[in-house]
Amino acid sequence: MAICASAIAIGDAEHLHWVQTLKDAHMSIDANLQWECKAMGRPRPTYRWLKNGQPLTAEGRIHVEAGRLTISRISVLDSGMYQCVAESEHGAVYASAELKVVGKQFARRVLFTTD
Questions:
Q1: Calpha distance 112→115 (Å, rounded)
Q2: Residue-wise pLDDT tens digits, 45-89
């Protein structure tokens, strides 16, 4: 006979800590970006995303689902510093990564002028 029991006392709390963080990304135009961050803690954290210090709004090509950020068909305008913020009543932890978007290489034409 096996007995398994567990108890969680009211008021027990576990400070937030990262289980998975972000890594910088260097991607080409029209690629799809997906970043995911995971934090553990009690109570369970909520997530929000920032781009260059400003709240990131989920719309159009940008999808946010908890600790997951997806940007479809990235453009040069998506370049910047991103932060995943995990928060609970006991505080917050931040994970940051930079997205660099590079365009297609275009040949440069040098024009010569004569006097």
A1: 10
A2: 999 999 999 999 899 999 999 899 999 999 999 999 999 999 999
DSSP lists the bridge partners of residue 88 as: 91
Using CA atoms, how far apart are residues 27 and 17, in angstroms rounded to an integer?
28
Residue spans per domain, the chain: 22-98
Tokens of 83: 């932060």
Instruction: Return the closest-CA partner of residue 64 out of 50, 43, 44, 45.
Output: 50
Encoded tokens for 39: 């934090």
Cα 28 to Cα 17, 100, 107: the distances in Å are 32, 8, 17
pLDDT band at residue 110 using 50, 70 and 90 as cut-offs: very low
CATH homologous superfamily of 22-98 equals: Immunoglobulins (2.60.40.10)
